[in-house]
Amino acid sequence: xxxxxxxKLLIVxxxxxxxxxKHSSGRASNPKIRCIESEKQALLKFKDTVVDADxxxxxxxxxxxxxDCCKWWGVKCNHHTGHVTVLNLSRNxxxxxxxxxxxxxxxxxxxxxxxxxxxxxxxxxxxxxxHLGNVSSLRYLSLGGNxxxxxxxxxxxxxxPLLRHLDLIWVDLSQATNWLExxxxxxxxxxxxxxxxGCQLPNPVPLAIPLNSSLSLVTFVDLSSNFLSSFxxxxxxxxxxxxxxxxxxxxxxxxxxxxxxxxxxxxxxxNLASNEFTGGIPKSFxxxxxxxxxxxxxxxxxxxxDEFLDKLSGSKKSLQILKLGGNxxxxxxxxxxxxxxxxxxxxxxxxxxxxxxxxNGTIDKSVGLLSRLxxxxxxxxxxxxxxxxxxxxxxxSLKYLDFSFNSLAFNISFNWIPPFQLDVIRLAxxxxxxxxxxxxxxxxxxxxxDISGAGISDVVPNWFWDQPPNSLVYLNxxxxxxxxxxxxxxxxxxxxxxxxxxxxxxxxxxxxxxxxVMSLNLSKxxxxxxxxxxxxxxxxxxxxxxLSGNQLSGRIPDCWEPFQELNIINLANNTLSGKLPSxxxxxxxxxxxxxxDNDLSGELPKSLKNCSGLIILDLGGNRFTxxxxxxxxxxxxxxxxxxxRSNKFYGDVPVGICQLYKIHILDFSQNDLxxxxxxCFDNFSALVHRDDLMEETIGFNFTVVISVDxxxxxxxxxRVYLGNALVQWKGQEREYGKTLGLLKIxxxxxxxxxxxxxxxxxxxxxxxxxxxxxxxxxxxIVEDIGQMKNLESLDLSANRLSGKIPATLGLLNFLSVLDLxxxxLSGKIPxxxxxxxxxxxxxxxxxQLCGDPLPNKCPGEEGGTEPPPIATGNExxxxxxxxxxxxxxxxxxxxxxxxxxxxxxxxxxxxxSNCRGGFRANQKATMPDSRHRPLALAxxxxxxxxxxxxxxxxxx
Length: 956
Prior knowledge:
By secondary structure, this protein is of the alpha/beta class.
């Protein structure tokens, strides 16, 4: 929105406000002098144009007890003259809004102006036609954090020669093409602090880059989040003698890290995170003897860790913060000799972040000697071995510990008492069990606790549940085999906690919950009884609720109105019964509703159409009835997955369904639908055109990531929700999760649909599976079916289709499952590299068909015989039953090919890697995707085509 405002917005305000510098005609001698009346009135006029919903400026007024403006909130005056010298209205909470009045022009002695982190906006008057005076007295200017401000071309900076501090964070400077020249000119000789982060700064042309700068006093430069390129290096070199703090994170800096940074010998803080640097750091970094913090997170650095640390040896006494996460560093964390530096060479380390790299081997015990260490994160690597007390021997200051997602096993003595009190405990996927770890009993001040997937098959001890209330905001015990009852949790947490107890064996009723719980996952346990306890969460900011895979029963309560932040509801795989409550329709932010495999019944409430943001609607495996309402298509424009399978819906498929332009999976199978299909399937844009959709953002930082393990996972650190769907593939139900986005399926099987198959279906070029079996379709197979180039599974069996098999069917190179059985098809099966590979059962029950792979030859062919007579009565029934039981040979072959190719696509690079670092789950190396199919075909597998399963392997 900032770009829509006048480019003169900030020019007008700052120029006119601070252009004049007239001094008072005399000085007051009274040390208790009150504010000057004209300046007081100027401030009151300013207040009149401000939207102050929370009463921040309540101390400003004309009442007798508020006459001295020098005592107002945010205002300071000169004790001798009474002039206003400071106006500080910075707000982090309860920001001010509205326009900035030109009345502030009368504050001609202002030295400090801070209007940051508000919502000021609006248009400003033209520059008043008056004498600009001598020079401005302003030293400090902060307008940052006002999203709706535009700074124009920054020409107004030339009027502030005394400026020392300039903060324009998030102010729109997209029109300031010469910004670098302006901030480097002789007009700002005293500038020390420059913060232009997130300002949409344009990359200047090389000729505009000043080679000599007057900014000899600048110590702080923040140009982060601007997508700038490497031109900044030559400019920063001119400032190298004074720079103390440089922040260039989230830009487009790439290639090798230049020596320019090594010349900034006064550097204390350097942040180069979230760029595209490769290789390692230059040897010149050894010059940075004062460096305290180095952040290289989120680049593509590949250097061996020991070499990297050796180049930092110049800062071994000063370095306190080292962040190398999210790169491709390799090597081990153990067995350093005296020839190579280890982390104990940096005794002042407070923060060590090595997460998400390619480190392997074991962790050296010397890490336990870093007595000042507070933050230790080595998660998401390929580390292994035993962790003992020695690794923590001297870590008395440790507050944050994250060893998650490594192959580390804890071998801690029974009576060990840690020397630390942790605030964050993250040990996901570490081997802590089978017993619940006793050493955690000493930890009772943590706010985050994650021991998911830790191999614990024990009863959770009472001492864990009985710890006094604390600041706990995140608890994750998921993916263990913990047993027993869960006690009252209502007083165990701080405000807005996340609770994940999923995939255990907890039993009993759902416990009492905190009234302000934000995320709750109790799925895949043995909880039983009613879910009515959720109605007690009246103060909730609940945005995630997953109670699936339990033994819960009874009705879904009608108390959903308070949950206005709810994004995700999953109550699948229980025995819930009754009708859907109408209050579900009050959830305007709902994006996932999964009620699959319960005993729910009745018609869908009309109020549900108010949930217009739904992305996944899965109501399969219930007893819902009535017509499929047209508003499902007209109101749910964001739907990606719609499953109404295995219910009792009847009547026509409404034309409104064709407005689901983003649909990937449409499953109406196993209902009582009848009538002709609408001729508008070519409106399904996501099935017609490739959209490369692999993830879909859904509110509150959740992400639906589409794939094959059938798991629903919520991780508070990355806020990832893995959606799933139950899909029928040739008579088998399969649950898909991570690669769900690759599956594009229409399943209308096992209904009473009739008429001809619409020609528009042939336009669905991105469709992977089409199942229209067990209906009453008549007429011919769509002639242009060869246009469905991505089709891998086609089931048209058990209909009344007639005529010849189209020759274009042989053009479907990826078809691995085909069933045309039990129709009235006739003529010769077209010759192709595909169609003769299928088992004869794919064509059985069509007496007038002939040719390979059927045993009967067509008339005129060598040894040809007339097709056998049409089977009737019991013979036809036996053929249909046999056909339903068969899984074609091509299906299994394609799965085998997919496994073989997927295995080498993933593990081949591991065997050839130059780094000894093992493969990690989220490595940055790009895998071939489904657009690289010729790679698979070139491998000369003879048994069958590349299937969606092998393409899934490539994506994973």
